[in-house]
Structure formats: structure tokens, C-alpha cells
Design a protein that fits this description.
Layout (H helix, E strand, L loop, with lengths): L22 H11 L2 H10 L13 H4 L11
């Protein structure tokens, strides 16, 4: 209900284990996943809101209007 609350939003996270054998590559992967290129792919393929504000939304998602996030944790 965007008038009184908003949309529930799930947050995903990622980390690199302290003793990861290929730490540098893991960091590169995470950096790529939040890049404009990868976020654009997610937005178009999965109909998700990208984590980057400067990434174009899929037209279907854009037609919903501005996302109002429910502040309830």
C-alpha cells in the first residue's frame, strides 16, 4: 500500500571470506555485480530495481511508477 506504507524490500548481501583462496578475484566479481553494466543486466532480465540509481529500469518496472519503500524493518 504505497499510500500508507510502501513496498517491502528484501536486501541481499555478499562478502568475501577471510581465508578465501582467490580473494582478489572474489572482490573483482563483487565489484562487477554492482557495476552499471551488471545492474542493467539484472534490471532487464529479472525485472528488479537496480542498486544503482543511474541504471535504466526495465519498461515494465518503470510503468509501476516511483518505488516507495516501506520503512518498517
Amino acid at each position: 500500500n504505497a499510500k500508507s506504507g510502501g513496498t517491502h524490500v528484501n536486501i541481499s548481501g555478499a562478502t568475501v571470506a577471510k581465508h578465501a583462496p582467490h580473494k582478489a578475484n572474489a572482490v573483482k566479481l563483487l565489484e562487477y555485480l554492482v557495476s552499471p553494466e551488471a545492474q542493467s543486466l539484472y534490471a532487464q532480465a529479472n525485472y528488479e530495481y537496480p542498486v544503482r540509481a543511474n541504471v535504466k529500469l526495465d519498461p515494465v518496472i518503470a510503468s509501476f511508477g516511483t518505488l516507495k519503500v516501506d520503512p518498517l524493518p
